[in-house]
Amino acid sequence: MARRIRAAVCSQPGGGLTIEELELAGPRPDEVLVRIDAAGMCHSDYHYLAGDLVSRMPVVPGHEGAGVVTEVGAAVTALRPGDTVALLWRPRCGRCRYCLTGRPALCQSGAIHAASGGLQDGTTRLRRPGGEPVHHLMGVSCFAEYAVVSERAAVLIPSDVPPEIAAITGCALITGVGTVLNAIGPCAGRGLVVFGAGGVGLSVVMGAVLAGAYPIVAVDMVTDRLDAALRLGATHVVPAGSDNVPAALAVIDPDGLDYAVDAVGRPSTMRQAFDALRPGGTLVAIGLGAAGEELSLPLNPLVQKERRVVGSLYGSANPQVDVPKLLSLYQAGRLPIDQLVGGRYTLDRIDDAVTDLVGGAVGRGIVLPGDSAAG
Q1: 50 and 106 within one domain
Q2: Beta strand pairing status for 257-262 and 277-285?
Q3: Residue 167 within any structural domain of the chain
């Protein structure tokens, strides 16, 4: 049965967000209805709002969220009403070659979400009161009071985990920490630099600390973000606004760093990251850029110094397994996820969350759809 909900809607690229009342259809047999208690404002959302990345519109953004299951479809077996869940923007279908070979972040269902603006069956559950379809972003759309998602897009978590912590874990944290643990692997005593100290970049720092990397360097334009990186365990920071980033990195380690992670998604920062590598070093690209943007690298240093350039999506993780593992580390005091939480915003103040994100605010902005007093 359909219900009326309030949600943030983007009707055209660059057109901003409007708070509208929409009709949300109930879950189909393999879906669940989730009350959204917290949703993170990710730079990927901004890319879609600005038109850097393409989505079918009108659309309800938001792909990093957490809440409580209130209704389940007839075929759902893993979840029940009352369960606390974190949402996943790349649910595994369990059948494609990537799921079957242990690489669910590359699941082919992602292409369905992108092309259709729907859920895993390619259809939407959202409509304006007059009947106009409104699309889902990444199969989630959690800048809303409620969301219907695939059963595979919700992972059961402990009920005592704060919703803003759970929301961040489902995207920023698993992307950053997962990049270190999965895409890089064992790196104790080896140098790592991350370009960009937003929510994902700070999560990379946390993952590097967890893995024992040394030195751990953060590069960013915003001084407050660099201070946050130091609090989370970075051993060195470099202001990105100076012309001497390469020289500053060379002082830290004249031979170069073993690993460089680009969490910005710009060709210029990726080139700096590549140049920061020692022979045999690896650049891991995790930040998304504008659609069609290209990276140019010098061929000879790539070959002669045996450098590697790889991409990592969603921390190259298995979210159904890794999200609970990361939350257990948080509960054990090994991952200070609470230090990633930035400002809190009501749904009516979501434009402020976007403005603060673009302006370089520290930590992850949290939208609280059911709260009328946040911020």
Answers
A1: yes
A2: parallel
A3: no
User: Are 293 and 361 part of one and the same domain?
Assistant: no
Which of 119, 137, 113 is CA-nearest to residue 47?
A: 137
292 and 352 together in one domain: no
Length of the chain: 375
Which ranges constitute the DSSP H helices of the chain? 43-50, 97-100, 109-116, 163-168, 174-178, 199-211, 223-231, 245-252, 267-275, 299-304, 319-331, 350-358
Nearest CA to 58 out of 17, 23, 88 is that of 17
Kindly state whether residues 135 and 244 are assigned to the same domain: no
The predicted structure's pLDDT at residue 139: 92
pTM: 0.93
- Average pLDDT, stretch 88-114? 86
Q: What percent of the chain has pLDDT over 70?
A: 99
- For residue 245, give its domain range: 176-313
Domain shared by 87 and 117, yes or no: yes
Q: pLDDT averaged over the chain? A: 93
183 domain residue, yes or no = yes
* Whole-angstrom distance, CA of residue 352 vs CA of residue 349: 5
- Tell me if 60 sits within 8 A of 183, measured CB to CB: no
Q: Is the dihedral of CA 223, 226, 231, 232 positive or negative?
A: positive
Q: Are residues 284 and 355 in the same domain?
A: no
Identify the CATH number of the domain in which residue 126 sits: 3.90.180.10
Q: Which long-range CB contacts under 8 A does 124-129 form with residues at least 24 apart?
A: 125/24, 125/25, 125/26, 125/27, 125/31, 126/7, 126/22, 126/23, 126/24, 126/25, 126/60, 127/22, 127/23, 127/25, 128/20, 128/22, 128/23, 128/58, 129/21, 129/22, 129/23
Query: Based on the domain organization, do 62 and 142 belong to the same domain?
Result: yes
Whether 85 maps to a domain, the answer reads yes
Token reading at 297 = 């690298």
Here the tokens at position 26 are: 């109930």
pLDDT digits (tens, 9 = 90+) for 228-250: 999 999 999 999 976 789 899 99
User: Is 42 domain-assigned?
Assistant: yes
User: How do residues 326-363 score in pLDDT, each as one tens digit?
Assistant: 999 999 999 999 999 999 999 999 999 999 998 888 99
* Pairing mode, strands 65-72 and 236-239: unpaired
For residue range 191-208, list pLDDT tens digits in order.
999 999 999 999 999 999
